[in-house]
Amino acid sequence: TAAGPLLAVRDLCVRFRGITALDQVSFDVARGQITGLIGPNGAGKTTLFNCLSRLYEYREGSITFDGQALEKMSRHRVAALGIGRTFQNLALFASMTVLDNIKVGLHARTHKGFLAHALRLPGVATEEQACSRRAAELVRFLGLEAVAQQRVAELPFGTRKRVELGRALASQPALLLLDEPAAGLNHEEVGALGSLIRAIRDQFQLTVLLVEHHMGLVMSVSDHVVALSFGRKIAEGTPAQVQRNPELIQAYLGTE
Ligand code: ATP
């Protein structure tokens, strides 16, 4: 199904003992676009990501990925279908090298198409060689050559966040969920991240859903922005449209 949005969220409700974390949330994520998901603390952004990667169950509403209903799928199946993510508190193996962490990502998805293609390339005879080549490409793309053989634990936080991106990209997702990629980064690193997110979308032809508190980054990198507050969608549109939405301005002022 190449037509229609890649992701369609419809009337999604999630409740935790009296707290309504998501309240009838509906929106689309268009193919090949970068969609920003914003909202004050507790708005429900992480809950939504957790529904998308099937870490949370939901009883009301639906999520359709590439025309298929997520509710019926296991967590593993969702990853295999092509939803990849990064985590706010990084999901890396600290005692392993950068390169090996990225290779772990390669195995996180059954990537038969990739292997069938890679095994036909000159000089690639085994699955291990195919994985090594792909991991090396990602290391280069992310500018991690100099640290490829270092253990993740030894690296500065900003570098570790790049490795986390590499791990997620290695699984060749069609939809990449980025959970606060700018958190903890310095000013220059945030600037570089904006260009990197766009380069990732262009180079790997994927669709990005970005949860982020750094407004400068979201507004400069996103094609479309969805805003949540207290579990409800309060605004949606281009960055320019969303930025002048009174309900959004109010939601942020109310939390300052
Ligand atoms: P932040 O920007 O601070 O990460 P958020 O927009 O990601 O916030 P969520 O973490 O999704 O917000 O939280 C939405 C609401 O749901 C909050 O009131 C939170 O306390 C609640 N919540 C989230 N996960 C759980 C859980 N597992 N059990 C109980 N309550 C939860």
TrEMBL record:
Task: Extract the SMART domains matched here.
Answer: AAA
Q: Which InterPro entries match?
A: AAA+_ATPase, ABC_AA/LPS_Transport, ABC_transporter-like_ATP-bd, BCA_ABC_TP_C, P-loop_NTPase
Does the keyword Cell membrane feature in the UniProt annotation? Answer: yes
Using the record's annotation, list all stretches that form the ABC transporter domain: 7-255
MF-aspect GO terms:
ATP binding
Top-rank taxon, per record:
Bacteria
**Family matches, as Pfam families:** ABC_tran (PF00005), BCA_ABC_TP_C (PF12399)
Q: Which sequence ranges are marked TM in the entry?
A: none
Which keywords appear in this protein's UniProt record, sorted alphabetically? ATP-binding, Cell membrane, Membrane, Nucleotide-binding, Transport
Specify the protein name: ABC transporter ATP-binding protein
Organism, per UniProt? Ramlibacter alkalitolerans
